[in-house]
Structures are given as structure tokens and as C-alpha cells.
Amino acid sequence: MIHPTTRAAVALGVAAPAALVVAFAAPAWWVFGPVWLVVVLAAVGADAFRLARRRIITDVQPPAVLYVGEPDRVAVRITCPATMAVDFTIDVDGPTGLLEPQTAQIPEAGTAERFVEIRPHRRGNVRLTGIWLRAQGPLGFAARTLRRPLDGECPVVPNVAAVTRQAIAFAARDAPLGVKPQFQKGAGSEFEALREYAAGLDTRTIDWKHSARHRKLLCKEFQTERNHHVVLALDTGHLMAETVDGLPKLDHAIGALLLLGYVSLKAGDRVGLAAFDARTRAFVSPAAGVGTMARLQRALAGVDYSTEETNFTLALAELRGRLARRSLVVVATDFVDTVTADLMIDNVAYLAKRHLIIFVALRDTSLGRPFERRPEDLEGVARAVVAYDLMRERQAVFAKLARLGVLCIEAPAAHLGPALVNRYLAVKARDEI
């Protein structure tokens, strides 16, 4: 569609009062008004004629896959046989915000390439439904606006890219102090090898029988045991659909559990998955090998956001029946207060009688905001009181779980994965499973 621009509208709007003033001030120059009108219309017509002859070709390449919370780029190529500037914007449908409009400056008979950032905030599918293009004529009195339909679809999956980056950081020997503990040989309970005793080694590891045979002090080296069962139990109920730091709690928990699953598989353990709300939504039996990580990713990618209340009694009872041996069960969930958490605590306590439990909850950073500055009005005081009560009740729930022998983790979104892996490594080092 070709239409006049704002410049043409202003020029036409000025023509009438200017012609009226000229007619009163100098009646002989009355022809100035019609001439001005003809000049403006001629400029509009000239721009429209040039725009109609110029063919604009577009090529939009969306990413093959999008990771939730991870920015990516949509490649847009615009080709035109003349030098011009083309404004464009892309229509999207799905769990992402509006894409920023951009301008492509096309050289003479050339192609301009631009990249539009896209950041999905939930899992699902993002569809590119169309691209809007707007180009002005050389005089700026007419513009052409057109819409080209698109049929690009990008699945939004759990953020495996962030998991890979964090896994690389954990594997690095020169990781910054405090990021992760390093557990080398000597920690654990599985016999690894004999080595000659040196000053500084624990005398309790000396093997006196072999020392007498070889006539020198030998001590035992141990390594962390392998083939433990690690089960990732994910709550997908309605509380996990709330947004924290730009992403649903469920996606933060999925990222942390995938990181733990990757580290556990690398450590030689067998990893499984159970996702549940009112009923069990997904289950992957504990297994080892390179294919297990792919199965975990597919299962978690298929977990949808739920509006149902979590039934801990049914879900954890079914999980207990499926676990034939003692396992490390990582329960990622959320709760509001001590009243709603009572049933959850009872079922977790029953599960903890046979298995080692790590209870993982995401810390809501918004609860600490009312305490960042002094309240200025009654509403600020009320917010601070409510936030303090919620924080106190959460700590009461963690205290109850700790008394039952449950290992508790509460961390902000950015540190949830590393905190969980550090706790797992500490459990392996102490051979608590």
C-alpha cells in the first residue's frame, strides 16, 4: 500500500492558510495556492511512481531452536534494486515480547542484513507470523507499507546452553575460589590404589599388612563411589508457574536439575526423573550413559506449566514404589507458608526414612525489597511486615525439614544450580548416599 507521508500532509495543510494569506495581502498572487497544491501532489505522485517500480525481497531466518531466558537472533535480509532505507518489524506469536523495529539501509542494487534479538520467557513455541516493511520515496512525500506473511516456528526448550556453560565452569581446574569445591582422590570410600606414604597424609590410611610385605609405609587411596541412583523430583504445580527474575520458577528449577544431572552422569551415577503435580507427568528410570542426558532433556521439555495443586501424597508414594534401592532424591518445589507445607513435610519425611533427600527451593528476591530502604508510608510498612512473616515461615519449614535429616537449599535463581551441585559433591565426598 502506497500512501502520503507526514511531510506531504504538512505541506498540504500549510497550502490552504498560505494561499488565503496571499489572497488577502496580494490578490494578484492568488495563483500561488493552486500552484503549491499541484507541486505537492506532483511530489507525492513522483515518489509513489518510484516506489511502485521498486521490488523489495525479504528473507527471514529464525533460529532452529530457542532456549528459555536465553537471547537469540532472527536474521533478516532485505534486497532492493535502489538505494533506500527500509523500516521493518516482525510480528510474533508465543511466549516472547515484541521484537524491536529496525531500519535497514540498502546500498544501490544490494542487500542489507540485520539481526533482531528475540528472548523467550516461557517454554512452548514461538511463531513468526509476518514482517511489516515501510520505505519512503526519495522526496519523502510518499511511503509504501506492505506486510509479508511468514511461517517460521521455533520451539522453546529448557536452557541447555546455560547448563553447558555452568558445566564447563565446574569442570575447569582454574575455577574461581568459592565457585565449586574440588574433590580429588582421597575423598570417598571406594578403594582406588596404594601409594607410598608421605608427610602430611592421614596416618589412618596406612595399610600395615602391605607395608610389612613391601618393607615401606604404604597408604590407601580412595575415590568417590559410583553407580549411585540420583532421582530428580520436580514439582510442576501452580506455585512453580510464578515468575521470578523474569522466568517461571519451573524453568529455573529445570535448569538447576539439568546441571545436576549432567554432573552426576559425569561422576558415574545413574540419573532418573519424576515430574508431578496432581499426578505424575513424566518419569525416567535411573540410568547411566550418554543417552540419559538426552532423555532427561526431552522429558523436561515436555513438562507443561500447570494450574493444579500439587498432590505430594500421591506423587511421592508412587515415587517410593518405583525406587528399589536407596537413592539421592532431589525435590525441587515451592511453598507459601507453614500451613500449606505441613502435608508436604509429612510426605518428604516418610520418603527420607529410606532415601537421602535434598530439598531445593528458589529464593524469591522480591521478599527482601521492602527492607532495602526505610518505609515512607503505611503501605511500605505493611509490605515489610508481610514480607518478614513470609520469610520467617519459610525458615520454619526449612528448620522442620533439617530436623528430619533433609538437606535444604534455598538460593536465588542465578546461584541455584551451583549451590545444588556443590551440595551433591559434598554428599558424594562424605559417602552419605
Low-confidence regions: 176-187
Broad structural category: alpha/beta
Give me the count of strands: 19
> Whole-number radius of gyration?
33 Å
What does this protein look like?
The chain is α/β, with parallel strands linked by helices and 433 residues long. It is built from ten helices and 19 strands. The strands form five sheets. Strands 1, 3, 5, 6, 8 and 9 form a six-stranded mixed β-sheet that branches. Strands 16-15-12-17-18-19 form a six-stranded mixed β-sheet, sandwiched between helices. A three-stranded antiparallel β-sheet has the order 2-4-7, with no helix packed on it. The chain starts with a strand and ends with a helix. Residues 176-187 have low confidence and may be disordered.
Quick take:
With 433 residues, the protein is an alpha/beta fold. The protein has ten helices and 19 strands. The strands form five sheets. Strands 1, 3, 5, 6, 8 and 9 form a six-stranded mixed beta sheet that branches.
Q: Could you give the topology of this structure?
A:
Elements: E1 2-4, H1 6-25, H2 32-53, E2 57-61, E3 66-67, E4 72-80, E5 84-93, E6 102-106, E7 110-118, E8 124-136, E9 142-157, H3 160-171, E10 190-196, H4 208-214, E11 218-223, E12 229-235, E13 243-244, E14 247-248, H5 249-266, E15 270-276, E16 280-287, H6 290-301, H7 312-322, E17 328-332, H8 338-352, E18 356-362, H9 378-403, E19 407-411, H10 416-430
Parallel strand pairs: 3-9, 12-15, 12-17, 17-18, 18-19
Antiparallel strand pairs: 1-9, 2-4, 4-7, 5-6, 5-8, 8-9, 10-11, 13-14, 15-16
Helix pairs in contact: 1-2, 3-5, 5-6, 5-10, 7-8, 8-9
